[in-house]
Amino acid sequence: MLRFGMINSTALLAVSLLASCTSLPRSGPDDSAVERGAAVKVTTKDRKVGIDYAVVDINKSILAAFASPASTSIRDSFGGGRGGAPEIPLGIGDVVQVSIFEAQAGGLFIPTEVAGSRPGNFITLPSQTIDRSGTLTIPYAGRVPAAGRAKEVVEQDIEDKLSNRAIEPQVVLTTITSHSSEVAVTGDVNNAGKIEVNSSGDRVLDVIAEAGGISSPSKETTITLQRRGRTGTISYEKLQNTPSENIYVAPGDIVLVNRERRTYNAFGASGLNGRFDFEDTDLSLADALGKAGGLLDSRADPARVLLYRSVEKDRLSKIGVNTSSFRGESVPVIFRANMRDPASLFAAKEFAMQDKDILYVSNSDSVELLKFLNIVSSVTSTVSGTSNDVTDTRAAVQSLGHY
User: Fold this and answer.
1) CATH number of the domain at 79-85+180-259, please?
2) How confident is the model at residue 119 (pLDDT cuts 50, 70, 90)?
3) Which of 216, 262, 367, 385 can pair with 355 through a Cys bridge, CB separation 3.0 to 4.6 Å?
4) pLDDT tens across 246-287, in order?
């Protein structure tokens, strides 16, 4: 009994010594060494991170709000989808051609002596580019403002300026090249470049088609429209399936086609840890758990499956979460699933994963206990082995003394 008590006492002493021992194998410095060596420490009480978050249990009352990925829209950003195509005025850099008609020969541009040799009572001026000042130069009319004005308005202005010299002049202005009405389409398309917008109107999908279509999987492709400092983003699939989102583009717009590799991370007591791709599909919570190897029977606590995500305030308000204490437009949320409940598997099939979610499977409390018991067991084994080594050494020394 005495020897058993001594061994237990020695084991407890060994545990305490091991806790502060620096000679045990390590892959790097421990936390205490890092803290001791720091010239400056910036920390908080109890080393708290300090980020406020909400905890929401996954149950049937919230599934309607999270059964599909968060929606995106460009119609809401630009108020499109209403009315006809935007008017396309003339602009700096446009190349135009001006034809001037007169009611009869003998006027300003059609002399009587050459009228019989001409096909009609009109003259076509050489093509010219609307200059940086935004004007055109017309003989006997001078410099005529053109940039930012409709073609019909410029025609009328030229006619008015020539009316006291030409015979009932009529003007036809033709756009040869319209650099000012171009839309840039770039990113993951087959033929990126600038596309001229038709006066009849082109929509977002039209200009993407002109650029050769997308070159990335549709599920992972987003479309961003930039216009005069404003930006709107939408998934390509929603743009295809929602006609009201396919709004008209306007001159000067930039359409960015971008492949966003959708991923989520899985940590803890799941079969596999790491970053996983959605690939060309949408995933539910059940899909994500399966892709990560499920829950480990020997480690996981099925009642504590956690999903970390930032959620828009208005979405949380719909399920009754008070978000008044949070700043900003989104709230850090930990969704908690109790997989011990048989019905939770139905909920996991309905709950949609989102890009950059973090999935964490907690260890069971019994696992932590087993960790401690394993340490105690290894220490007592080491103490017993040390005692035998001392005995063997003593016997060897005594045998050497006999020589």
Assistant:
1) 3.10.560.10
2) low
3) 262
4) 999 988 899 999 988 889 999 999 999 999 998 878 899 999
Smallest CA-to-CA distance from 296 within 274, 314, 271 is with 271
Q: How far is CA 154 from CA 120, 126, 134, 143, in A?
A: 23, 17, 12, 11
CA angle (342, 345, 346) in 5-degree steps: 105
Which tokens is 108 given? 């300003």
* Residues with Cβ within 8 Å of residue 213, at least 6 apart in sequence: 189, 190
Bridge partner list, 174: 97
Q: Give residue limits of the domains in the chain.
A: 50-69+282-366, 79-85+180-259, 95-177
Model confidence pTM above 0.85 = no
Taking CA atoms, 206 is separated from 209, 225, 257, 372, in Å, by 5, 13, 13, 65
C-alpha closest to that of 308 among 331, 339, 292: 331
Could you tell me the fold of the domain covering 95-177? Answer: wza like fold (3.30.1950)
Confidence of residue 381 (pLDDT cuts 50, 70, 90): low
Cβ 295 vs Cβ 339: under 8 Å: yes
Same fold for the pair 79-85+180-259 and 95-177:
no
- How far is the C-alpha of 3 from the C-alpha of 359, rounded, in Å? 50
Task: Give 2's contacts (C-beta < 8 A, 6+ positions apart).
Answer: none
Residue recorded with tokens 């580019």? 129
pLDDT digits (tens, 9 = 90+) for 142-199: 999 999 999 999 999 999 999 988 888 999 999 998 888 889 999 999 999 999 888 7
9: region left, alpha or beta (phi > 0 left; psi from -120 to 50 alpha):
alpha
Q: What is the largest CA-CA distance in the chain?
A: 146
CATH number of 50-69+282-366: 3.10.560.10
141 close to 158: Cβ distance less than 8 angstroms: yes
Tell me: the pLDDT tens digits for 46-89? 888 888 899 999 999 999 889 877 767 888 777 655 667 788 88
> Please, what is the end-to-end C-alpha distance for the chain in angstroms?
38
- Enclosing H/E stretch for 287: helix 285-291
Is the pLDDT at 398 greater than 60, yes or no? no
What is the rounded CA–CA span in Å between residue 99 and residue 158?
11
The two tokens of residue 379 are 């220490």
Cβ neighbours, 10 Å, residue 152: 10
Structure tokens at 213: 């279509």
